[in-house]
Amino acid sequence: MNTKKLCCLNIQRIIEKANSLEYSKSGRIKSTILRARHQLKILRDNNFQCSKCGNKENLTIDHIDGLKTKRSDYRLYNKAKCIILCEECHLKKNKKEVFKKVSKLLNIHLT
Question: I need a surface site. Which of 24, 39, 52, 60 has the fewest CB within 10 A?
Answer without folding.
Answer: 24
